[in-house]
Amino acid sequence: MNTQIVRAVDVARTFGNGPNAVVAVHGVTCEVHGGELIALTGPSGSGKTTLLHLLAGLDTPTAGAIDWPAIGSRDRLRPGPIAIVFQAPSLLPPLDVVENVALPLLLQGIDRDTARDTAMAALHRLGLEPLAAKLPEELSGGQAQRVAVARVLAGRPQLILADEPTGQLDHLNGAAVIDALIATATEIGAALIVNTHDTAIAARLDRQWSMNGGRLVVKAALSC
Predict the structure, then answer these.
(1) Who's near 195: CB < 8 A, 6+ residues apart?
(2) Residues 68-104: pLDDT tens digits?
(3) What is the pLDDT of residue 31?
(4) Please, what are the domains in the chain?
(5) DSSP codes joined into one string, 37-53
């Protein structure tokens, strides 16, 4: 088994207090290792996005514990070791494509020339080099999502979390984004978790997780 990237033990996340409290995630125990490709499915409101936010360190559990054995403390998670691809456009409007892809590298302290060269190489590997000088407003939805994947590739994270990355795309563009995510994770040896409602997308990944009522349900011989 590859390096353990993240581990959750009996994790819960509750929003609100008293009779209005909503338990979004309840009693989740799981672990993710380097190189694993995981589909996270389940109905809307079942806690999938909340679980991804917890695993990313964007949110803190109300109960239980999460740690990142291969990374270290929470303050080391980003930018670098954990990358997130959101459903909504996540590119910064004032920056062109190559600047958007290079930004996380600059935030890690990499010099500007090296960051730009690395960003251009990532765009080239995903066939996006012709878009390098375009602004986000000039891109289609599918192009913008693939640029977001290029940004992930450039940063070479250990864990990629994709939250409904094809939810606003047609089938063709959605397939291209998933192709890029799988290829990127495989190339850099990262773990990948894709939150999706699309059973065809889920079937392309090696492991299957499902959320139901805030609880994690696993299928096949999984470690969680």
Answers:
(1) 40, 41, 48, 49, 52, 161, 162, 163, 164
(2) 998 887 777 766 789 888 887 789 999 999 999 999 8
(3) 93
(4) 37-46+74-218 (3.40.50.300)
(5) EEEEE--TTSSHHHHHH
Q: What six digits make up the tokens of 168? A: 């606003």
Report how far residue 146's alpha carbon sits from residue 187's, in angstroms, rounded to the nearest whole number. 16
On the question of pLDDT at 161 being above 90, the answer is: yes
Degrees to nearest 5, angle at CA 126 with 104 and 107:
5
In the 8-state DSSP scheme, what is residue 72? B
Residue 190, token pair as written in the block:
């990262």
**Closest listed residue to residue 199, CA positions, set 182, 180, 174, 221:** 174
User: What's the sign of the alpha-carbon dihedral 207, 219, 212, 24?
Assistant: negative
How big is the chain, counted in residues?
224
Burial class (CB in 10 A: 0-12, 13-18, 19+), 196: buried
The answer to whether 134 and 118 have CB atoms below 8 angstroms apart is no
